[in-house]
Automatic annotation (TrEMBL):
Transmembrane segments: none annotated. Keywords: FAD, Flavoprotein, Monooxygenase, Oxidoreductase. PANTHER family: FAD DEPENDENT OXIDOREDUCTASE DOMAIN-CONTAINING PROTEIN, MONOOXYGENASE ASQM-RELATED. The keyword Magnesium does not apply. Residues 30-89 form the FAD-binding domain. It comes from the Bacteria. Signal peptide: none annotated. This is 2-polyprenyl-6-methoxyphenol hydroxylase-like FAD-dependent oxidoreductase. Coiled coil: none annotated.
């Protein structure tokens, strides 16, 4: 709290947006989504930009692999992307919960201590 109180600049509250974990949509011919449009998640697992780049690469690979059948390419891309997005959304949701809860940062400190213990073992 002292860090915020002693800051030279005013605090700017920024909202966090996220789609619900497991968010899906029905197939639409000739249409799919990539990046944040597909998996809008909080930044607390460092997954967002990586997912967006992977989406683009996998969509391109699916289009090349399926040649003229764009519907097969889109279906193939979504079949891999949607479960991956759901896992990432779960991770970021857990990260958000570790930082914003009634125990302050204790769950986050415990997490890093458990990771550190695992590395030292």
């Amino acid at each position: 709290m002292d860090l915020i109180a002693r800051s030279e600049a005013p605090l700017i509250a920024r909202p966090l947006y996220a789609l619900p974990v497991g968010h899906r949509w029905g197939r639409r011919p000739g249409l799919t989504l990539i990046g944040d449009a597909t998996h809008l998640i909080s930044p607390f697992a460092g997954e967002g930009a990586n997912l967006a780049m992977l989406d683009g690469a996998e969509l391109a690979q699916a289009i090349v692999a399926d040649g003229d059948d764009i519907e097969a390419a889109l279906a193939s891309y979504e079949a891999a992307m949607l479960p991956r997005s759901e896992r990432a959304a779960s991770y970021t949701g857990a990260g958000l919960d570790m930082r914003f809860n009634d125990q302050a940062l204790r769950p986050l400190v415990d997490f890093f201590q458990s990771v550190r213990s695992g590395v030292e073992a």
